[in-house]
């Protein structure tokens, strides 16, 4: 369908469109909508897929190595690194051997925080590797690279511990490697990079193999003590099967001699129960030993009973389980795409991603409109992720990126929310173009 770009409409046509859209928005204000597309949470029907966790142990609490999971500690390190079955599950998700994995509690984010805080305070690579000590000697703050748009909780960790962030643009194949290499050449106090390599939050891109290989080599290009934080949160969250592969960064790092500088993370938070799953840390023995020592002061071990029930529940059926998830949410993403295509295509006022998995759709509007659109939607009862949330410090320099999270609402709610959203995009764009014309010399 051929459509006229909004900017090409005659002044009277554009003002008429604005008035029509405003009137429709006024009607929706009285509809009592209360819709939420803010966070990527599993829907209740997705959580129901894992109800079989309840009672699966049936009184058998013994791990394969003989550990009684009800008690403190464990055999051969199971208390701190996790029981063998759980480490194997983490290895399956992260494409690692079980020996390369620590199985933790319900949060991979807490493991990320622990790794970052350890690198900052004590160092991950022996004496004199602390980021803070190096910052003190150089008189320059520690910085990390933040591909944008990106994941707000990564940014929160940096803000919490006092690490500055440097924006790096995302491309369809991952972070802009040329931009990264230039930044590393200019600034030796850039000490790490955040990565969500598969179905990246929020763009949904998958890092290309050449990008993965290049990122694995960054510690050799950077200043001392560089860390790649590889948050593979959506490793198995495909919409179509067999799953789309992701290149193995640790394999590339082993070839390039940088394996000790790669920290890999995953969890079952969007596989089983979001608040009662398992988090995983994967990497070299050098990294695991350092983190194991830190854990020794924090805990006598994570919840091994939960580790065991997850391992038994998902053993041999992880892909089948994720296909069931895909069957529940694929239609919700289709509904988002249908509304975007029908209402915004051809108008030259927005562009958006078409992910093949994950939890988000990323939309870029005309510059300067994200806050206005989100505000308009809120007025009629549709909550969207705050403008700027996908950038460090909540500052989108162009005020244009909006993240849509369609998994939690049902399809009818998504249909209603997307009607509001696309209406707000068109209205905000029409208002902006009218204002631009009026202010033109």
Q: Oligomeric status of the shown chains? A: single chain
Counted by DSSP, the helix tally is: 16
> In terms of per-residue confidence, which ranges show pLDDT below 50 for 5 or more consecutive residues?
none
Structural class: alpha/beta
CATH topology of the largest domain: Aspartate Aminotransferase, domain 2
Strand order of the largest sheet: 2-9-8-7-6-3-4-5
Indicate the mean pLDDT.
96
Profile the largest sheet: 8 strands, mixed
Short description:
This protein has 16 helices and 13 strands. It has helices at residues 11-29, 44-48, 78-81, 84-94, 108-121, 131-138, 152-161, 177-186, 209-216, 218-221, 249-256, 285-298, 304-314, 318-344, 370-379, 411-439; strands at residues 35-37, 101-103, 143-148, 164-171, 174-175, 190-195, 227-231, 262-267, 279-282, 350-352, 361-365, 382-384, 401-404.
């Amino acid at each position: 369908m051929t459509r006229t770009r909004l900017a090409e409409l005659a002044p009277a046509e554009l003002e008429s469109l604005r008035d029509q859209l405003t009137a429709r928005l006024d009607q929706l204000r009285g509809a009592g909508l209360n819709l939420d597309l803010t966070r990527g949470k599993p829907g209740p029907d997705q959580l129901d897929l894992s109800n079989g966790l309840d009672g699966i142990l049936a009184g058998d609490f013994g791990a394969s190595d003989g550990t009684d999971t009800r008690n403190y500690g464990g055999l051969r390190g199971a208390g701190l690194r996790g029981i063998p079955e759980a480490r194997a599950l983490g290895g399956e998700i992260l494409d690692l051997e079980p020996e390369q994995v620590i199985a933790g509690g319900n949060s991979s984010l807490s493991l990320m925080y622990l790794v970052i805080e350890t690198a900052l305070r004590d160092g991950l690579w022996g004496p004199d590797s602390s980021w803070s000590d190096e910052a003190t000697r150089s008189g320059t703050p520690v910085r990390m690279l933040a591909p944008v748009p990106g994941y707000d909780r990564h940014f929160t960790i940096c803000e919490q511990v006092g690490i500055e962030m440097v924006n790096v643009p995302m491309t369809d194949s991952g972070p802009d490697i040329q931009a990264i290499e230039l930044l590393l050449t200019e600034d030796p106090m850039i000490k790490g990079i955040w990565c969500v390599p598969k179905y990246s939050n929020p763009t949904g891109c998958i890092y290309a193999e050449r990008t993965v290989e290049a990122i694995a080599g960054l510690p050799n290009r950077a200043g001392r003590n560089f860390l790649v934080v590889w948050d593979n949160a959506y490793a198995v969250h495909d919409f179509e099967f067999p799953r789309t592969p992701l290149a193995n960064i640790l394999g590339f790092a082993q070839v390039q001699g940088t394996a000790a500088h790669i920290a890999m993370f995953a969890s079952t938070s969007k596989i089983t129960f979001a608040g009662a799953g398992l988090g995983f840390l994967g990497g070299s023995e050098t990294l695991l030993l350092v983190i194991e020592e830190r854990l020794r002061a924090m805990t006598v071990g994570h919840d091994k009973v939960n580790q065991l029930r997850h391992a038994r529940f998902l053993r041999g059926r992880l892909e089948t389980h994720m296909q069931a998830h895909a069957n529940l949410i694929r239609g919700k993403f289709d509904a988002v795409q249908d509304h975007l295509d029908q209402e915004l295509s051809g108008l030259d006022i927005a562009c958006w991603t078409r992910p093949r998995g994950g939890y988000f759709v990323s939309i870029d509007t005309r510059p300067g409109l994200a806050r206005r659109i989100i505000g308009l939607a809120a007025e009629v009862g549709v909550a969207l992720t705050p403008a700027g949330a996908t950038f460090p410090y909540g500052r989108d320099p162009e005020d244009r990126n909006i993240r849509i999270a369609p998994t939690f609402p049902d399809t009818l709610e998504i249909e209603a929310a997307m009607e509001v959203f696309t209406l707000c995009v068109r209205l905000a764009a029409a208002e902006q173009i009218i204002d631009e014309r009026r202010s033109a010399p």
